[in-house]
From TrEMBL:
One Gene Ontology term of the molecular function aspect: UDP-N-acetylglucosamine 2-epimerase activity
Domain UDP-N-acetylglucosamine 2-epimerase: start-end pairs: 30-369
Name by which UniProt lists this protein: UDP-N-acetylglucosamine 2-epimerase (non-hydrolyzing)
Family affiliation: Belongs to the UDP-N-acetylglucosamine 2-epimerase family.
Known EC number: 5.1.3.14
Length: 393
C-alpha cells in the first residue's frame, strides 16, 4: 500500500526568507513522490519579495498580501496570524516550515502551534543574547525556537545555543545555511551588469559594496558611517563605492545629507538578487549591517566589515572573514583603510574559511524532514573544515 505523502507548508514573507527558502522548496519538490509541497507568501515586503520569486521561478499557492503603507509590527502580526488561520484550516499540513527571524516567521510558527501542527525552523539557533539588537529579530527567533519541533541549525555554534535552551538534541540538525545553496546557483549563472554598475567597476580599481538598513543604526550612526566613507575616498583615489540604498525614508534622508553628489559614490535603487550577487562577486570588500550578507560574502572570498555592535552570526568573526566594527566614524575609517592599505590583512580575511555552508544545506534539511516522519535516516552534519565547498574565484 502506498504511504501517504507528507504535506509541507512553506511560509515566508521577505526577500531574505525567499532566497533561503528557494533551494529548500526546490529540493522538497524533487521528492514529489514522498512530499506534497505548498507555498504561502505573506508579502510582508511586497516589491523585494516579488523580485526573488521571479528569480527562482517560485509560484506561491497562497499570497496573503499583508503589506500596507505605514504598517507596524502590530499590523503585520495581526494580518499574518489571521491570514494563516484560514490557510492552515484548509490545508492541514503535516509540517509548517519557516525560515529565520522575521515577524512572518514568528507569527507563522505561532499560527501552526495554535493549530497543533509541527513546525520546522530553517536557520535556527542564531543569537545575540540582546533582545533589542537586532529588533525585533532576536526575540522573533527565540520565540520561534520554542514553538518549533525541528531545528535546522546552520552551524555547530547555533546547535550549541539551542542545546543550552533545553532543545532536545535529536530534534536539532546541523545543515549549513541554504543561503549558500542559493548563492552558488546564482553566482554560476552568466550575467552582465547594467551600464551604471559596470561603470563603477570600469572607473575604479577597487570597489566597496555598502548596504545599510538596520533600525538601530538610523540617525547619527549612519551619518558617521557615511562620513567615514567620504574620508576613505579622499585618501584612496582608486576606490569607489556602490551603494544600493534601502527604501526606508529615514535611510534615504541620511544618504542625501552626506553622500549625494560625492565623487565615486554610485547610489542605486535596491538591486534584484542576481545583480546584487554579481556586484558582490566583483567588489573588493563589503560593508554592511545586514545579517544575510555576513553569510554570503565569505563564500565569495570577500572580507566583511559589520556595521553593528553585536552579531547573531559570530562564526564569520571567529573564522576571520568578518570583523565587527560598529558605526563609530573613526573606527570605520581605520578598519576600511587597513584593508585597503595592508595587502596581508586583506588576504588573510579574503582567504578565511566560510563557516556557513557547502551548497548542500537544502538536501540535509529535506532528508531531516523525511527522517522525522520515518522515511529516511538522519543526514550527516555539515562541518565546514571537512566539507566546505567554495565558489571558485
Amino acid at each position: 500500500m502506498d504511504m501517504k505523502k507528507i504535506r509541507v507548508l512553506c511560509v515566508f514573507g521577505t526577500r531574505p526568507e525567499a532566497i533561503k527558502m528557494a533551494p529548500v522548496i526546490r529540493e522538497l519538490r524533487a521528492h514529489a513522490d514522498e512530499i506534497e509541497t505548498r507555498v504561502v507568501v505573506t508579502a510582508q515586503h511586497r516589491e523585494m519579495l516579488d523580485q526573488v520569486l521571479d528569480t527562482f521561478n517560485l509560484r506561491p499557492d497562497y499570497d496573503l498580501a499583508v503589506m500596507r503603507p505605514g504598517q507596524d509590527l502590530f499590523d503585520v502580526t495581526d494580518a499574518v496570524l489571521h491570514g494563516l488561520k484560514e490557510v492552515l484550516g484548509r490545508e492541514r499540513p503535516d509540517l509548517v516550515l519557516v525560515q529565520g527571524d522575521t515577524t512572518t516567521t514568528f507569527t507563522a510558527a505561532l499560527a501552526a502551534f495554535y493549530s497543533r501542527i509541527p513546525v520546522g525552523h530553517v536557520e535556527a539557533g542564531l543569537r545575540t543574547y540582546n533582545r533589542y539588537a537586532p529588533f525585533p529579530e532576536e526575540t522573533n527567533r527565540v520565540l520561534t525556537t520554542h514553538l518549533s519541533d525541528l531545528h535546522f541549525a546552520p552551524t555547530e555554534r547555533a546547535r550549541d545555543a539551542l542545546l543550552k535552551e533545553g532543545i532536545a538534541a535529536e530534534r536539532i540538525f546541523v545543515t549549513g545555511n541554504p543561503v549558500i545553496d542559493a548563492l552558488f546557483q546564482a553566482a554560476e549563472q552568466p550575467f552582465q551588469l547594467e551600464p551604471e554598475l559596470a561603470r563603477a567597476f570600469q572607473e575604479n580599481g577597487r570597489v566597496i559594496l555598502l548596504t545599510t538598513h538596520r533600525r538601530e543604526n538610523l540617525g547619527k550612526p549612519l551619518q558617521d558611517v557615511y562620513l567615514a566613507l567620504r574620508e576613505v575616498l579622499l585618501a584612496h583615489p582608486d576606490v569607489g563605492v556602490v551603494f544600493p540604498v534601502h527604501k526606508n525614508p529615514a535611510v534615504r534622508r541620511e544618504v542625501a545629507g552626506v553622500l549625494t553628489g560625492v565623487q565615486r559614490v554610485y547610489l542605486t535603487e535596491p538591486l534584484d538578487y542576481l545583480p546584487f550577487i554579481n556586484v558582490m562577486k566583483r567588489a573588493y570588500l563589503v560593508l554592511t549591517d545586514s545579517g544575510g550578507i555576513q553569510e554570503e560574502a565569505p563564500a565569495l572570498g570577500k572580507p566583511v566589515l559589520v556595521l553593528r555592535q553585536v552579531t547573531e552570526r559570530p562564526e564569520a568573526v571567529a573564522f576571520g572573514t568578518a570583523r565587527l566594527v560598529g558605526t563609530d566614524r573613526y573606527r570605520v575609517t581605520e578598519e576600511v583603510s587597513r584593508l585597503l592599505d595592508d595587502e596581508g590583512a586583506y588576504l588573510k580575511m579574503a582567504g578565511a574559511v566560510n563557516p556557513y555552508g557547502d551548497g548542500r544545506a537544502a538536501q540535509r534539511i529535506v532528508q531531516a524532514i523525511l527522517s522525522y516522519f520515518g522515511r529516511a535516516a538522519a543526514p550527516a552534519e555539515f562541518r565546514p573544515a571537512a566539507e566546505a565547498k567554495y565558489f571558485s574565484r
